[in-house]
Automatic annotation (TrEMBL):
GO molecular function ontology, one term from the record: ATP binding
Name listed for the protein in its UniProt record: ABC transporter ATP-binding protein
ABC transporter domain boundaries: 4-235
Record keywords: ATP-binding, Nucleotide-binding, Transport
InterPro entries hit by this protein: AAA+_ATPase (IPR003593), ABC_SmlMolc_Importer (IPR050093), ABC_transporter-like_ATP-bd (IPR003439), ABC_transporter-like_CS (IPR017871), Mo/tungstate-bd_C_term_dom (IPR008995), P-loop_NTPase (IPR027417), Transp-assoc_OB_typ2 (IPR013611)
SMART domains: AAA
Source organism per UniProt: Luteolibacter algae
Amino acid sequence: MEAIRVEKVSKVFDGAVVALNGLNLEIKAGELFFLLGASGCGKTTLLRCIAGLETPSDGRIFFGELDVTKLAPHKREAAMVFQSYALWPHLSVSRNISFGLEERKIPKAEIKERVAEALKMVRLEGYGERSIDQLSGGQQQRVSLARALVVKPRCLLLDEPLSNLDAQLRIEMRREIRSIVKDNGLTAIYVTHDQEEALAMADRMAVLAKGRIAQIGTPEEIYRQPAYSHVASFIGETNLADGDVMEMHEDFCFVKINGTALVGRVTDKNWRGQPGEKATVSIRPEVWRLHKESGENEIAGKVVERSYLGQRIEYFVDTVIGRQQVVEMNPYVLHSVGDHVTLHARHGDIVIFPKS
Ligand SMILES: Nc1ncnc2c1ncn2[C@@H]1O[C@H](COP(=O)(O)OP(=O)(O)OP(=O)(O)O)[C@@H](O)[C@H]1O
């Protein structure tokens, strides 16, 4: 178990494409850490720099106190698990797992012991002699995890490991991978496009933008206290609207949008918005209520679309601040298209940022 520290790492491809731009990051020992962000923001490049498959153009990477920036990949003892399992279909499960150890000239008896241990870790005891093509997709992904774990890595790097699996299996494997990482005290970095996967599994996560960290925090912090509008809209769904600052208080603020005043929390502690300054308001669909609760943030609207989704109902409501997506769980009253409604939201649930 090792902490990982990335210090001012940049990576420029072909002298022109800036994939990483002076990025700093500290991952704690034993943490399951997620990297998220729009396509091209640098997630895979960062993971590959940590693995040693790319060399940073600038900056340093540490595993614990060891500077690994110039260390060859196999000397870093970082194991990587890919989206494509990269298994040999004609070889047995055991051979697939033991291959890396055979290459390292580990004695046969020890290999046998370590393969058995790795199979146990991924709950595939008794599958050693099967060939890969006799396994399900989820079992194959567990073999690729076992192959990574058998070398006793200092850290585990996962690049979209579940994206080839069907939806149900993906959800089951989330728990499996998390418990494998936690039970074995591994430090793991996980890249995904699936924000729900990240919210469900991560100890902490970072949202990257343009080769830097935009925000870092626990899933709850990132979802409930996004510091920028692009983080709010990237993780989960949200209604964004632009307006002008009316009044700024210690950690909340009033904003006027098309003549309507809204009050919400300010998550960027460094922002002291001046009256008249442009601001963006973010309201999650589940934050809007269709019944009166606190009297704060009331807006009249008209239902223009409704989808009944079993456990929840989703509306689109036209209001003076724009079309709002509204989600209600277990609704008390069902509204129809054309109904006039009033939306309500508590000020603690609305987030306000400086307009970017
Ligand atoms: N080998 C390479 N040569 C040139 N440019 C590259 C190379 N690898 C990545 N890039 C560029 O670097 C930037 C970051 O790419 P990277 O693959 O790290 O992004 P990503 O966040 O993982 O994207 P995705 O979510 O689409 O996988 C992109 O602009 C990409 O085109």
